[in-house]
Amino acid sequence: MLDYTKIKKELSLDSLVVHGYQGHDPYTGSVSFPIYQTSTYLNPGLNSDIEYSYTRCSNPTRSELENTIALLEGGEAGFAFATGLAAVLASFSLMSAGDHVLMSDDIYGGTYRLIELIWKRYKVEFDYVDVGDLESVKAGIKPNTKMIFIETPTNPMMKVADIAAISKIAKEHGALLAVDNTFLTPYFQKPIELGADIVIHSGTKYLAGHHDTMAGLLVVNSKKLADKMTLIIKTEGSGLSPLDSWLVLRGIKTLALRMKRHEENAIKVANWLKQNKNVEKIYFVGLPEHPSYEVSKRQSTGFGGMISFTLKDVTKVEKVLCGCKMIMFAESLGGTESLITYPMTQTHASIPKAIRDKIGITDKLLRLSVGVEDADDIINDLASVLD
Ligand SMILES: *Cc1c(COP(=O)(O)O)cnc(C)c1O
What we know:
Layout: H1 13-19, H2 60-73, E1 77-81, H3 84-92, E2 100-104, H4 109-118, E3 125-129, H5 134-140, E4 145-151, H6 163-172, E5 176-180, H7 185-188, E6 198-202, E7 216-220, H8 223-236, H9 242-253, H10 255-274, E8 279-283, H11 293-299, E9 306-311, H12 317-322, E10 328-329, E11 339-341, H13 353-359, E12 365-369, H14 375-386
Parallel strand pairs: 2-3, 2-4, 4-5, 5-6, 10-11
Antiparallel strand pairs: 1-7, 6-7, 8-9, 9-12, 11-12
Bound molecules: pyridoxal-5'-phosphate (PLP).
């Protein structure tokens, strides 16, 4: 469990991301936390109570990352997984046959595939609701609802859910609230402070931040959930490797710098897109005309760097995706480089067309992960394919 007594509580988030939990190696003083590249550990004696016995169960580099994310999210304990989807899966592993889970209707395509192609065979029920509408959330609750699982802002439609209000509904019905916080990171949004029980991240995105590693993170707000999750991660064997744990730790050191820059750039790019005659509609939570701008301002300290937008003319899609000189046409998001994706055929291809159309994931929708380059270079690149 996280020992908060060790932590300099007076540090701001900007310093905490740099220093992490322990920050340095307690044995050698190494300022860079070491990569404990080992599968097993010397046992000092019969019946000795050792913290580390086998890396599937725990590893010091992974523990440092787990404690760091728990610290940043303000939770009881953190867990680091091989991928974001492995972290989502671990949250589902808290469910049993007969339980019901209420999901955001606009979720990451991989999470949808995990439910539809795998978890629906396990006699756990899943329903999807528009979590931007609290009445639909209330109406979606069943006597066996054990978890509400939301993403906010959603991927790719940037819908915002009111975390505190949904947490109240979940608590009234004895259900857990899990929040996928990938888009904003704890730097801009802390779901546990707003009442969530579980926070999930694709660490592959902003936390690692350089498009060079895969990771998933999960933070829980209670000792009871921490004990269950400790059993799940060691038994499912989905923990993150020491090297990848180190890469995510290194990424987190610049999280504050990067998130501020991503956001600053995204605001400039969104305002530029807004006046472009070839752009039909913009989905960015940082624009005052976004329907949930006020909710965002209340529950988050920033808007992040993700923008989706539709083009007026579908025939321009290919040029925008493939014609940029700097912005890359590639899946994923949250790294230093700006990436543009086509949700319909990439991230959300697993979602049936009828549902995609209903949500708004059409053939004219593009998603831009605004990187940390010079904003003018991003805008000039877009202008060269849009104008
Ligand atoms: C990418 C992503 C995931 C899945 O994470 P992986 O690291 O790719 O497994 C889950 N949720 C959201 C919001 C994502 O963007």
